[in-house]
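>> received
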Amino acid sequence: QVQMAESGGGVVQAGGSLRLSCAASGLTVTAYRMGWFRQAPEKEREFVAGISGLSSTTNYLDSVKGRFFISRDNVKNTVYLQMNSLKPEDTAVYYCNTNPPRSNYWGKGTLVTVSS
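>> returned
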């Protein structure tokens, strides 16, 4: 059974930084394209950042390019999202999943709140 355990969210002032972690179990993160997604209040969930399984090629939502960075620890089987220069519009629940996401792999997510 695949499980994603997201952590690292919190409340931060605009301009601050957070590092999110996603500990995966039941799958090996290097065998899949992995991604971070987010869902803001009253909005649909959207893709934020992705990393390929073998080459570690990354891609990002335009609005986070240059501020967010996705990475992976193969030994810990964990995917990270370093978020810098946070803005109030980054406020959302953040999730990790394969990319494209699989419906039965969603975890509980971690809430990020950016105050102005």
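>> The mean pLDDT is 96.
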